[in-house]
């Protein structure tokens, strides 16, 4: 039956694809993707060749309409992004939204996502985490965005574009202070995978210690504001109240 399959694909290692994902790609009438060249190569790795529909951030609305029409005609369409899970810091949400609004079936095929992979190997408590995706690229906006996250008690999960990791580590240090733990999850599932945990104060030195660390794909996990900080605030407020009482 007509279905939009939302298919997670590898974030590095081609082995990280599920049997269901391969099956969905194999039975799809067409594959909607961010970059036809990239997805063509991915499909050929699994011995598949399909009609590819370009569906990237600049044409997502029109692509959504074309996909809805094809589903209405009874087709099965697979939606992928360049890496990981579509719609997670990637195009896809508008397409899914349009398909759902048209009353057509959407089926997720779970698989890799860099955020969850990084969390799983971080050792940080992750009963609660806040996925903040990419911070703004301009310094001022980036610091403002971080300030808004400073009091969140859950682990913060950030994505970072290659080449910006050093600036982002500096911004984290200057806005959040040096004490929190940070986990750098770099090049997950690839040849130079590295997962390193240190304090924010120690982060610049770790990045500087090896030139290759200045680039590559990173997920950054930052320990949340601790409940202890909150207690300190409460204690400060209690003392302030006593002092104000004394002064009046
Ligand atoms: N949809 C993807 C997902 O589910 O993870 C995310 C796509 S987003 C455009 C790309 C960002 O994800 C990178 O800049 C990096 O922060 C993170 N990322 C993707 N692959 C990664 C990997 N192998 N190792 C570390 N981070 C990765």
From TrEMBL:
Q: Does the keyword Mitochondrion apply?
A: no
Q: Which InterPro entries match?
A: 4pyrrol_Mease, 4pyrrol_Methylase_sf, 4pyrrole_Mease_sub1, 4pyrrole_Mease_sub2, rRNA_ssu_MeTfrase_I, RsmI_HTH, SAM_MeTrfase_RsmI_CS
UniProt keywords, alphabetically? Cytoplasm, Methyltransferase, rRNA processing, S-adenosyl-L-methionine, Transferase
Major place of residence = cytoplasm
Localized where? Cytoplasm
**GO BP terms, alphabetized:** methylation
Q: Name one GO molecular function term.
A: methyltransferase activity
Record's catalysed reaction(s): cytidine(1402) in 16S rRNA + S-adenosyl-L-methionine = 2'-O-methylcytidine(1402) in 16S rRNA + S-adenosyl-L-homocysteine + H(+)
Q: Which EC numbers does the record give?
A: 2.1.1.198
Keyword rRNA processing on entry: yes
Q: Which Gene3D superfamilies match?
A: Cobalt-precorrin-4 Transmethylase, Domain 1 (3.40.1010.10), Methyltransferase, Cobalt-precorrin-4 Transmethylase, Domain 2 (3.30.950.10)
Q: Where is the Tetrapyrrole methylase domain?
A: 3-203
* Known function: Catalyzes the 2'-O-methylation of the ribose of cytidine 1402 (C1402) in 16S rRNA.
As for family, the record states: Belongs to the methyltransferase superfamily. RsmI family.
Q: Which NCBIfam families match?
A: 16S rRNA (cytidine(1402)-2'-O)-methyltransferase (TIGR00096)
HAMAP family reported for this sequence: 16SrRNA_methyltr_I
The protein's name is Ribosomal RNA small subunit methyltransferase I
The gene it comes from is rsmI
């Amino acid at each position: 039956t007509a279905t939009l399959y939302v298919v997670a694909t590898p974030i590095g290692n081609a082995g990280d694809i599920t049997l269901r994902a391969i099956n969905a790609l194999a039975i799809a009438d067409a594959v909607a993707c961010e970059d036809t060249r990239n997805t063509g190569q991915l499909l050929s790795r699994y011995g598949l060749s399909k009609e590819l529909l370009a569906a990237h951030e600049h044409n997502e609305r029109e692509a959504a309409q074309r996909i809805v029409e094809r589903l209405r005609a009874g087709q099965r369409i697979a939606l992928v992004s360049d890496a990981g899970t579509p719609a997670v810091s990637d195009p896809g949400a508008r397409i899914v939204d349009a398909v759902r609004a048209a009353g057509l079936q959407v089926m997720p095929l779970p698989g890799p996502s860099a955020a969850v992979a990084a969390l799983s190997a971080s050792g940080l408590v992750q009963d609660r985490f806040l996925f903040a995706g990419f911070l703004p690229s301009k310094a001022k906006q980036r610091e403002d965005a971080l300030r808004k996250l400073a009091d969140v008690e859950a682990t913060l999960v950030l994505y970072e574009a290659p080449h910006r990791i050093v600036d982002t580590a500096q911004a984290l240090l200057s806005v959040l202070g040096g004490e929190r733990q940070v986990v750098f999850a770099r090049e997950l599932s690839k040849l130079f995978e590295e997962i390193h945990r240190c304090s924010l104060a120690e982060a610049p030195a770790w990045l500087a210690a090896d030139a290759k660390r200045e680039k590559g794909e990173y997920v950054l996990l930052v320990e949340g504001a601790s409940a202890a900080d909150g207690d300190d605030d409460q204690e400060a407020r209690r003392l302030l109240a006593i002092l104000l009482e004394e002064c009046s």
